[in-house]
Amino acid sequence: MARFGSFEEPTKDMKGALRRLARMFRSELLRIIGVLVLTLVGTLAMLLTPKLLGDATNVVVDGIASGSGVDFSSLGRLSLIIVGLYALHAVANFSGGALARISVQNLGSRLRRDAQQKIDRLPLAYIDKQARGDLLSRVTNDIDNIVQTLMQTLGQSFYALYMVIGVLSMMFYLSWSLALWSLFVVPFGLLAITRILKRSKPAFREQWKRTGDVSTIIEQTFTGHDVVAIYGMEDDINVAFDDANEKLFAAGFRGYFLSMLAQPLMGLVSNLSFVVIAVVGGIQVLHGTLTIGGIQAFIQYSRQLNNPVAMIASMANMLQSAAASSERLFDFLDTADISADVSEQLPPFGERGTIEFRDVDFSYEPGKPVIQSLNLKVVRGSQVAIVGPTGAGKTTLVNLLMRFYNIDSGAICIDDVDIRSYSRQSLRARTGMVLQDTWLFDGTIAENIGFGAKNATFDDVVAAAQATGVDHLIRQLPDGYNTHIDDNDGTLSTGEKQLVTIARAYLADPDILILDEATSSVDTRTEMLVQHAMSELRQGRTSFVIAHRLSTIRDADIILVMVNGNVVEQGDHHQLMASRGAYYDLYQAQFTGSSEAG
Questions:
Q1: Predicted TM-score (pTM) above 0.70
Q2: How far apart are CA 433 and CA 544, in angstroms?
């Protein structure tokens, strides 16, 4: 059936992913050694019990056969030793398992920490190109799958390996010929297991890829819930989700179906071995080359062999799933970091602070320029407004100033010094940003305003709120500044959220202020509050304003009109209106028929 159809052969090195995962256990070396030792002790205890049970059986049989009676002293001693070995096995098995779980949890913690630190080092270009849901799946679902798989396999794999070696040794010790006969069918089972492993690899890789796809759809549906509802796209979203979910089900079913074949297959091999043992072992007992206690011990060892072999087969398939997740995680962790930074700090602007764009070229993709030969000089304290149609390069311009992207050629300078000579952190520390899409984290209003201002006091937070006109709104809330909010609750309106982010920027006391569509989605009253707050905030600061509502930037010192990455006009409002060029056309399109036109 198509839903369970074949998948492409793997193109990556899953074994390499597992080897890399194993190398990460080096920091847990002492615990791993402890697991090895404790598992070995527990395994030896289990290996000795069948032999001792066989000896106890021989004591009973020999006593009855000889007519001298059962030697209960020897039988009691053997019984106590057997009970002690069972207890030793239980203690060693528990202790080894606990150490293994601690080691795996430490590895999981390290993987999560590495993933979080990697996010901080990722270039914005990478994040913009990736599906957010898939990235979240890599650092949550894939890491959880790795941890859960290793929790189930780490200690058990050592135990299974020891048991296979030990049981085979005891079987050959009891009867090498019977051991060879009983193992005759094992190669056929191993061959089948190998084929299962080969076929399960692409299925598990596909499964975790499809998990990322499903996470992406869920994330997009959640963040864009209002848009989906407004446009009545619920059915279309559900169709897309069902398709992705169906593919996930098919991949998961195929992988785990193949995995489930391992244990019954090895059970069949074990049963065939019992037939051989019964026939050949019975003949050896009749010929006196093997005792009844010996064949009893041999059968127990044979049963013990079946369990670890089946465990190894099952764990091998489980590790395919962990390897697929490891590939996805390491692919994310191996993504190139942002370019190396310098340590030089950008000093406060003081009396200077002239910003210049000198012949700047930039493109997101080679051969597709977004900004071309841009030249711009902005003196300290100026307000620069950037207008133009969608895709003209307005937001890109400020992204370059913030060094979220690196320019292709030219230079961006502050007081004749290329900003690449300063660290990104120091440049961004001198910059405040207010975006159209507000971002508030899960915390109190006071904590959100104080975000980024590490040394700010509560009085500083209140002063910033008062300066930006949000203080009286906050005090009307039941808990005031201690009101708990996040980016998705309904406690604050869109405009009030923007006022909070403006207060945050005010508290940061930046030299450069960037307003990206900051008042494009608020009501008239709130816009007046925002404009008043911004007027106070812009005093003595260099500000870049990106807006479609031209009424908000009429008092700008410089207005840049961008079209296809080029600055086609530059000047203040009155100059540009008088020239009757691109800005005049944009303005007329917005205000035709109003008293503001002209």
A1: no
A2: 10
Cα–Cα dist 429/346, whole Å: 9
Please choose, from the candidates 340, 338, 342, the residue with its C-alpha nearest in 3D space to the C-alpha of residue 423: 342
Whether the CB-CB separation of 327 and 201 falls below 8 Å is answered with no
364-373 own/partner pairs: CB under 8 Å, 24+ apart: 364/125, 364/405, 369/565, 370/396, 370/565, 371/396, 371/397, 371/400, 371/565, 371/566, 372/565, 372/566, 373/410, 373/566
3-class DSSP state for residue 249? helix
Distance CA(594)–CA(584), nearest Å, equals 14
pLDDT in tens, 300-311: 777 777 777 777
Residue 66: CB partners within 8 Å, gap ≥ 6? none
Dihedral of alpha carbons 123, 128, 129, 130, sign: positive
Chain Cα centroid distance, residue 237: 24
Distances (CA, A) of 54 to 7, 293, 294, 329: 51, 4, 6, 51
Q: Give the sign of the dihedral formed by CA 141, CA 146, CA 148, CA 149.
A: positive
Q: Across residues 565-578, what is the average pLDDT?
A: 86
CA 451 to chain CA mean position, Å: 24
Burial of 88 (0-12, 13-18, 19+ CB in 10 A): middle
The whole-number average pLDDT for the span 544-564 is 82
pLDDT for position 274: 73
Asked if 69 and 95 count as a contact pair (C-beta separation under 8 A), the reply is no
CB 548 within 8 A of CB 535: no
427 residue type, one letter: L
What digits encode the pLDDT tens for the residues 509-522? 888 888 876 555 56
Q: Residue 361 in contact with residue 409, Cβ under 8 Å?
A: yes
Length of the chain, please?
598
